[in-house]
Amino acid sequence: MITQTEVHLRAAPGKPSPLFWVPTTYFTMALTYMTLTSVTAIMFKNLGMDNGQAAEYASYLILAYTIKPLFASFVEMYKTKKFFVICTELAIAAGFVGVALVMSLPSYMMIMMLLFWLISFLGATQDIAADGVYVTSLDGKTQSLYCGIQSLSWNIGPIVAAGGLVYLSGKLHTDFFHHDPKVFGAEWMDSWRIIFLIVAGITALMAFWHMRTMPDGAKAENTPASIGDAVYILRDSFVTFFQKRDVWLMVAFAFLFRLSIGFLEKIGPFFMVDPVAKGGLGLSNESLGLIYGTYGLVAVLLGSLLGGVFVAKRGLKPSLFLLCCAVNIPNATFLLMSIFQPESQLLITAGVAIEKFFFGFGSVGFMIYLMQQLAPGKYTTTHYAFGTGLMGLCMMVTGVISGHLQQLLGYTNYFVFVMLATVPSFAVCWFAPFHHKEDQVTSA
């Protein structure tokens, strides 16, 4: 007997099963995003940038992902969604090849940053088109069935990028090129050039794979027929968004919920690799890749799973403040590590895993709040994107200034500041409005 699940797992006649393209699509999206926003920060640090510059340069690359709702409607107008996925993946691959090549030039930094900036807009467009293929090619039941596969596949991206690629950069630098891993500077270009060529190769391979396996994607019901229609829809979505009851409290929630995490995101890894004499822990890239990209990510995934179960049983409104505590209070592990500077990698791993587990546990509340309270209305999908865009804006702003603040304060005082930055998060959770029932079905 064939089960209902097996029916939805099978492809329609003449079409590849979603199993052939959903996992690879979301993995490729995550690989691009994590390489740009996290891996580059470590590379800048390795090349000898101070914390202020390294965090600032990497944070600017979040901008395109933050503003992608502004140009999503225009992507919908032309060709097919598959066409944009394939074109952006090939262009991203070419962009990373270009990064590897320009690193050989005497004055490479400006050209490299321009290429990274271009890749970030290509990556944001890739996200828009790929999500469009998923939403328009699969019916509601199949979307729900593949939601877990989609999420898991995306989370493999950080494992490969923040874990595998950072680890490999250290191994190449030390074992293949025989450079001193404790000295930051131009010698690190040898290993990072190979890393970017690997990312380019994976992305190009995925593009050719998706040529064969990905469906074209259908036009959405509200797809604009002209540039004028696209501008009208964008304007109307803004107007209706700011007409929501207590919208400014919800905007504050979306922007401030992860404020302390924004200050911690770039500085945490820098703290790990900086020498003990500078207040860091003196870890290698290999150790950083294992701790952050493997153990830390497993902790995030486990925390997210348990957080979802917790909210499902208890409800979001009575859980939200506890979830905020989970996101913010464990940041104290970095303060403790900066005070005692443990040498044991087991203790360091435990500290990172605790922070990441509770971050994953608490962050579930943020996403559910956006879905259930901020998004409902005429443009549910667009308004949800506005909410995640505000969160991305917070990550960019805090990332840009975080390195400069750390240099000014030193690691211990900076992590005290991170704890103080949790106060706005608690405030917005305490005053967060609830105007929709949690089981309410929102309109499209």
Characterization of this structure:
This protein has 2 domains: 14-223, MFS general substrate transporter like domains (Growth Hormone, Chain: A), CATH 1.20.1250.20; 244-433, Up-down Bundle (Growth Hormone, Chain: A), CATH 1.20.1250.20. The longest helix has 37 residues, at 140-176. The protein is 75% helix and 0% strand. The protein is mainly alpha-helical and 444 residues long. Mean pLDDT is 86; it is low at 1-10. It comes from Undibacterium hunanense. It is a multi-pass membrane protein. The chain crosses the membrane at residues 20-44, 83-102, 108-124, 145-168, 191-209, 247-264, 290-312, 319-340, 346-371, 383-405, 411-432.
